[in-house]
């Protein structure tokens, strides 16, 4: 057996503690608020990260090492999110190493041989459950574990802006977190390190490498999306990655649908045909009380705030609650802007943008009462304005921004808001604009409706969820078990 491989060691039941390092201040990049308290997809980065370990089956406990000036903020996040695995929020130290030592001190009452500790950066909110599980598994064999990914860039060494060496890229990795250790291993390494007057390290594996050099450090394969939010641009990138990750909506069984929808009230604007009708049909099938509103069936004009208010009041009066509000109403007018009449422009703006605004405002008190969700719809054209789609694509981009802004604005009120982004879908609105199109080239309204229901029943908020034809149910953007 190679000398660098360690034989598995039989141990009694092991406790795994995740230590989330949240001591950053944000001042280095000019932020007044610590990066870990900035919001992405409707939640703070810290909450996203803590939820990862809350959901990890093999993590028993979570300790947060917080910037000393924001301990109360972190405690409030933990309380509101109901994060039961978080046992303590402690002030961090003046350096990464000092913070680690404070965490080790907080674990002093645990068995050094039967405790694993995972140190993870709070500003890596896209860590996967696979990586967490691989780290815990590796600690059954190894005493120290790092997470790393290959470097796609050539790394150079410089001295005074002159290249001095170009290391072989195949042997290089980019380090991530978590970094995992048996508690005895990391304790012993730090005990030796503090005796070194020149001790300084940017991470904990470096401490083990330098001060316990005979301890092999196993490398677990990381993932590109496990990025560290360091610079302002990273916030934008992380937000987009959350949107992509949310495309895999939770999978629900028929029993889940029935349990979560029975007795709930669903209001669907644009519910007479197409996607809206599909959502309403599915919700009714699984026991929801559904109220459908449209211009053709109920003479409800979504561009009229009074009609919206009357519809919501009717649903609430009949059932005593409103849990979900869905707006699929929209108009699609194709043509050059300079050749478009004023009345057409006004209709597009009123139906495609002002209507979601009015629906959101009118829905707020009802959804705040039930902790419900507002679901809006955009179009793939929102990402880039297209010729002859100027009104449609720009209003759909505005809907996405409205979704993300309200998810942040209403998070304290317990309201979730998401946006479905289907690719070209076979609906009467599209047929009216483009005529009949080749079979198999369009997404079915039923598939969009199924994804919509999955999103409504999820904990997601602030997400733009893509639905694509090539995804099979339960494997991609469509989610669900159908």
From TrEMBL:
One term of GO molecular function: 2-C-methyl-D-erythritol 4-phosphate cytidylyltransferase activity
Origin: domain of life: Bacteria
Keywords for this protein: Isoprene biosynthesis, Nucleotidyltransferase, Transferase
GO annotation, biological process: isopentenyl diphosphate biosynthetic process, methylerythritol 4-phosphate pathway
Site positions per UniProt: Transition state stabilizer: 28, 35
EC number of this enzyme: 2.7.7.60
Keyword Transferase in record: yes
A Pfam family hit: adh_short
Name used for this protein in its record: 2-C-methyl-D-erythritol 4-phosphate cytidylyltransferase
Lineage of the organism: Bacteria, Bacillati, Actinomycetota, Actinomycetes, Streptosporangiales
């Amino acid at each position: 057996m190679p000398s660098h491989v360690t034989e598995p060691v039989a141990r009694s039941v092991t406790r795994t503690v995740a230590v989330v390092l949240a001591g950053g201040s944000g001042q280095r990049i000019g932020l007044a608020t610590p990066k870990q308290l900035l919001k992405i997809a409707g939640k703070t980065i810290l909450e996203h990260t803590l939820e990862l370990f809350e959901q990890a089956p093999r993590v028993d406990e979570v300790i947060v090492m917080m910037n000393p000036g924001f301990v109360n903020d972190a405690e409030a996040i933990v309380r509101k999110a109901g994060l039961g695995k978080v046992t303590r929020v402690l002030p961090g130290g003046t350096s990464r190493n000092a913070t680690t030592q404070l965490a080790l001190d907080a674990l002093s009452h645990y068995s050094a041989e039967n405790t694993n500790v995972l140190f993870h950066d709070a500003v890596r909110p896209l860590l996967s459950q696979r990586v967490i599980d691989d780290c815990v598994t590796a600690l059954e064999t190894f005493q120290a574990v790092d997470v790393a990914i290959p470097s796609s860039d050539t790394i150079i060494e410089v001295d005074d802006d002159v290249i001095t060496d170009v290391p072989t890229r195949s042997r290089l990795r980019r380090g991530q977190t978590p970094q995992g250790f048996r508690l005895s291993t990391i304790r012993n390494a730090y005990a030796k390190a503090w005796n070194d007057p020149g001790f300084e390290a940017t991470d904990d594996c470096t401490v083990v490498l330098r001060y316990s050099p005979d301890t092999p450090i196993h490398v677990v394969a990381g993932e590109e999306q496990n990025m560290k939010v360091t610079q302002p641009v990273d916030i934008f990138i992380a937000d987009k990655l959350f949107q992509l990750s949310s495309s895999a909506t939770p999978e629900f069984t028929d029993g889940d649908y029935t349990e979560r929808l029975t007795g709930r009230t669903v209001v669907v604007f644009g519910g007479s045909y197409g996607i809206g009708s599909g959502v309403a049909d599915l919700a009714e099938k699984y026991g929801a009380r559904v109220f459908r509103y449209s211009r053709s069936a109920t003479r409800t004009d979504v561009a009229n705030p009074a009609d919206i208010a009357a519809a919501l009041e009717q649903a609430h009066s009949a059932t005593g609650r409103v849990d979900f509000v869905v707006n699929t109403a929209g108009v699609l007018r194709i043509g050059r802007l300079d050749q478009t009449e004023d009345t057409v422009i006004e209709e597009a703006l009123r139906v495609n943008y002002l209507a979601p605004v009015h629906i959101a405002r009118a829905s707020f008190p009802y959804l705040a009462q039930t902790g419900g969700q507002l679901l809006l719809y955009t179009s793939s054209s929102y990402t880039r304005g297209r010729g002859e789609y100027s009104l449609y694509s720009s209003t759909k981009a505005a809907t996405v921004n409205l979704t993300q802004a309200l998810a942040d604005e209403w998070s304290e009120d317990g309201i979730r808001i998401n946006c479905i982004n289907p690719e070209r879908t076979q609906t009467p609105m599209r047929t009216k604009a483009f005529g009949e199109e080749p079979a198999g080239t369009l997404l079915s309204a039923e598939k969009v409706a199924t994804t919509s229901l999955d999103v409504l029943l999820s904990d997601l908020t602030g997400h733009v969820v893509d639905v694509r034809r090539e995804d099979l149910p339960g494997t991609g953007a469509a989610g669900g078990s159908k």
